[in-house]
């Protein structure tokens, strides 16, 4: 029996890119499984990458993506 009680992101992608390349966005809040908040995006090419939620460009990307979802 395996439970995901660990961080999903080992490292984060640091090069900014346009939100149009994001197909899906998941925000995982910090908790007993991981002390860090994590942002995981699935790109239009199918690749999943972790983004650093403290980076300004990442915060802007999340805002754009949330507005697009409304």
Task: Please tell me about this protein's structure.
- Keywords: Chemotaxis, Cytokine, Disulfide bond, Inflammatory response, Secreted, Signal.
- It is found in: Secreted.
- Residues 4-65 form the Chemokine interleukin-8-like domain.
- There is one protein chain.
- The chain is α+β, with helices and mostly antiparallel strands and 70 residues long.
- It has a single domain (19-69), classed as Beta Barrel (OB fold (Dihydrolipoamide Acetyltransferase, E2P)), CATH 2.40.50.40.
- The chain has one helix spanning 56-69; strands at residues 22-28, 38-43, 48-51.
- It has a three-stranded antiparallel beta sheet with strand order 1-2-3, with helices on one face.
- The chain starts with 21 loop residues before the first strand and ends with a helix.
- The model has no long low-confidence stretch (mean pLDDT 87).
Itemize the secondary structure elements and their pairings.
Blueprint: E1 22-28, E2 38-43, E3 48-51, H1 56-69
Antiparallel strand pairs: 1-2, 2-3
């Amino acid at each position: 029996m395996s439970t995901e009680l660990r961080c999903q992101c080992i490292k984060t992608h640091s090069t900014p890119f346009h939100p149009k390349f994001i197909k899906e966005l998941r925000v995982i809040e910090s908790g007993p499984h991981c002390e860090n908040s994590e942002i995981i995006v699935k790109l239009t090419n199918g690749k999943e990458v972790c983004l650093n939620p403290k980076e300004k460009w990442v915060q802007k990307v999340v805002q754009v993506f949330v507005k697009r979802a409304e």
